[in-house]
Queue: 3 jobs
Job 1
Amino acid sequence: MLFNQRGMSLIEVTVSILIMGIVTFPLVYMYRAGGIHAAEAGDELSALNLARQVIEEIKSIPDNQTGFAGGAASNTVTLENRACSIDGFYNNYNIAICGGTGSGQVKKITGYDGASRRAVVDWDWLVVPDASSFYMLYGYCPGNYRYAISAENGRSGLKLIRVTVYYTVKNREREVTLTTEKIPR
């Protein structure tokens, strides 16, 4: 018995290509949109991880690494007398101005004079801290995002610590904020 071996007509081929195009276009769009949303979620997750890392670091610092600035200049700050008296002890630590004048600034300490309790920071202060400026010293937390730390008195003698990490998605700045309480030691 012989089978019909005529083949497909031009109309059948055209209709098949049209149907494939109608089905494929939304799938390609969803794949592309999914990739964009995954990248955005990755940036948010990285910012959240940095905030979590900073929070954990701050919760573990001893009380002598917090205090009020005893004065400052364009790229220095004087720490309280409770701070360590060993030269270079706080090199590569971060100092965050968490309250008062200059609040929200985070700088890296590049030099420390133990006798005078004076720390030199990597960049000039945008707003120079003064005696109302509450600071925290903590170890280095790597990250590609700008962040700010604030501290205020909470209930029962606790410090309420808030870490806000700023990141950019589609040319818009977004932020992630984590809050915790710290027991003074």
Note: The chain has one helix and nine strands.
Job 2
Amino acid sequence: MSTTDTRETIMGVAKAMVQARGYNALSFREIAKDVGIKSASIHYYFPTKGDLGAALAQRYTDDAVGYFEQLLVEPLDLETRFRRYIAVFRAALLNDNRMCLYGIMAAEYGDLPPEVRAAVDGFSEANVRWLVQVLAPRHPGADDVQRRRAALAVFAAIEGAQLVARGRDDIAVFDQTVDAYRAAGLMP
């Protein structure tokens, strides 16, 4: 396996581990076992757990931003664009009842090293920025502060719906909650 392949494999195993059990459960020993390398070898790629956590959160954010940009350039109506956005959060639940990497790391925010916190904050900010842009036509008279508040409320609602659905191990809870938000006018 090449150096790039090993690094990517480590990140894939680590991402699944964090999404399933949280950042605090991230273990170089367990990752090494799953990857088939020595635990010390992981330190070659990621000297500390914080380095690995920050790399995971940054990659997660970069992937999300790429997807958000794609959604903006596609000729979609607001409802379709928004459904595709929400589908990303739903997909994590469909993958062995996992959480969004951001959501699970945010729950452990106080335990995260500063470099991981900064990367986690980046995901939140990327979502809010995108939501402000997408939802702006629904709030033509709102100023920037009001738009950011509305976007943050939507982002928090989706993350919360995912958390509750995960806790119940029931994807229908996510769908019902999102439908309730739509009915209440919070989401398109």
Note: The chain has one domain: 50-183.
Job 3
Amino acid sequence: MRTMTRRAMRGVGLLCAAALSLTACGSSDGDSASSDKTVSGGELRAALKEGGSLTVWAWEPTLKQVVSDFQKEYPKVKVKLVNAGTGNDQYTALQNAVQAGSGVPDVAQVEYYAVGQFALGESLEDLSRYGAGDFKDDYSPGPWNSVAVDEAVYALPMDSGPMALFYNKKVLDKHQIAVPTTWDEYLEAARALHAADPKAYITNDTGDAGFTTSMIWQAGGTPFKNRDTDVTVDLTADKGVVAFTKVWQKLIDEELLAPVTNWSDEWYKGLADGTIATLSTGAWMPANFVSGVESASGDWRAAALPQWKKGEEVSSENGGSALAVMKAGKNKDLAYAFNEYANHSEGVQARLKGGAFPATTADLSSPSFLDTSFPYFGGQKANEIFARSASQVPDDWSYLPFQVYANSVFNDSVGKAYVSDTTLADGLKQWQKAAVTYGNDQGFSVNK
């Protein structure tokens, strides 16, 4: 996405068809002229003073406090916060509303991997006309590069998901297994743990598109490249793909991964009783430990993500969302003002207090943030690890401009490697074929 030009964003929007199940293909809502007009800070303040109504579609819980605080500060603005579902459920509802020409919210939460697909459908307002482009250095590279394309800014980052290795210290200490610092060491730790206790696994994995792409990202991979309407998909020879496949295939072949789905009751039980000993995921995870794995408080710790090459310090992002202003919304100026409040000014602190992990560089480096102790992690100052991870994310990663679709068919291809004789390499090859076919059918030039 990072290399796709703004001209391509506008051009590809003409190629959108109703058959796109998750892409919100927007139309000009009669407000195209105002969409190109630069809006000053004074005009935004005047809009806030005059007031009006906003509808915000989001599932992120800390926004409830932000909405309350915002309405107290600007009493003439009324904000209706709607949970229209998480992830794909909301995207489907959003696409349906845009195509119907009614019921479109003013502001919508969009995960980073999905921003490009909605921007290409011309459903998102370019926030650079409000001066949002000046915020580049205020956010960590991973989130910013997911919302900004050349001079265009299609959303403001809400949070970030720099990755870390969460590990059950009690379990590893019991079996005298050192915290792995490389993925080769991780494989050895998986073998040692499962040999010591056949009921225990180093981690769980049944196939997850977001996790897989995050691991490829950390390994230096760039399997998706976009230039204008030309798209390249390389899920076979890309160096990150090769590195990930080499290690993960061994974990699969040796049955060292717990066959447990994330967020299931069985998953929470495994985290609690130590049969799932580590998780490699985003820095937003601690709140889920506290709320869902309360009985294991004090057992878990956080560490840097293992490295693909010993001595390196490279991380990745996993998860995270932004708030976008919908082009078909009725009150764009107020919508942007709320977005900036939530993600660039007073609302940020309210969200951090509620457990959100920041995308803002000032907060990532603040002493109060870094010095925070986590009772769940035995008093560890885990934010030091997370903040360092955020600074180590390569900024050359791109998602597909139809990543929402690609992720939706991941388990039809790569997922087979976890439950059949299909190899991970073959599954990724099938995933590539599906992505190429779909992209070409939608008017892109993929691998041509």
Note: The chain has 20 helices and 15 strands.
